[in-house]
Design a protein that fits this description.
globular, alpha/beta, Rossmann fold, seven-stranded mixed sheet
Length: 202
């Protein structure tokens, strides 16, 4: 498949996808994009705006994964308004869901945190995250996550070692927390691939 991985980060979701597919990753932070490229040297990595890239090039791919920024939707962010001022929820999340649902003929998934408000479009809930998709996502809602146990536990969970990297203005813990767990990424990827094969066989 030709795959588009949007808001790619360090590629936690991509970790177990293998090397037999043609994958394009879009990440706006050049330092994080460099880590992704180191981890997945066969992928094409583009430093740029994933939202705009989707609009221009969506029809060139078979499968699209999008993980738009989550802070404005996060329950934790809202619960800490004594530290962070209130912000508008970023509607790019719903723009991309509706765009993919309306215009994209392939398989797609949009991932985000469980929001502090009732979702405007009903998602699947899997492993303590929301997923909107062109196929059914099933499985346990809760996950064995260790987001509060520090960087070593996070690196084991995300199967990514950041020890040799230095980041300006952002902590490694935050970067790792933002990465989708590889097991979840692979399970959802397999669901998308199986759904594509089923549609092609009909």
């Amino acid at each position: 498949m030709k795959i588009l991985n949007l808001y790619a980060g360090i590629g936690g979701n991509r970790k177990r996808w293998g090397e037999e597919h043609e994958i394009t990753a879009v990440e706006i932070n050049p330092t994080i994009a460099k880590v992704y490229q180191d981890l997945y040297p066969n992928d094409e990595v583009i430093v740029g705006d994933a939202h705009e890239f989707l609009l221009k090039y969506y029809d060139q791919y078979d499968f699209i994964w999008s993980s738009p920024p989550c802070p404005s939707h996060s329950r934790v962010r809202k619960a800490t308004t004594h530290q962070n001022p209130p912000i508008y929820p970023d509607m790019k999340l719903y723009e991309e869901i509706l765009f993919l649902e309306g215009y994209f003929a392939g398989e797609w998934v949009v991932e985000n945190v469980i929001s502090w408000y009732q979702p405007l479009i009903r998602p699947y809930e899997y492993q303590e995250h929301y997923y909107w998709a062109s196929f059914v996502i099933s499985g346990d809602k809760r996950a064995d996550r260790f987001h509060d146990e520090g960087i070593e536990a996070l690196q084991r969970l995300k199967e990514i070692d950041l020890s040799k990297y230095k980041f300006e203005g952002i902590s490694k813990v935050k970067i790792l927390r933002n990465a989708v767990e590889p097991k979840a990424g692979k399970r959802i990827f397999d669901m998308a691939f199986n759904n594509k094969q089923t549609r092609l066989s009909i």
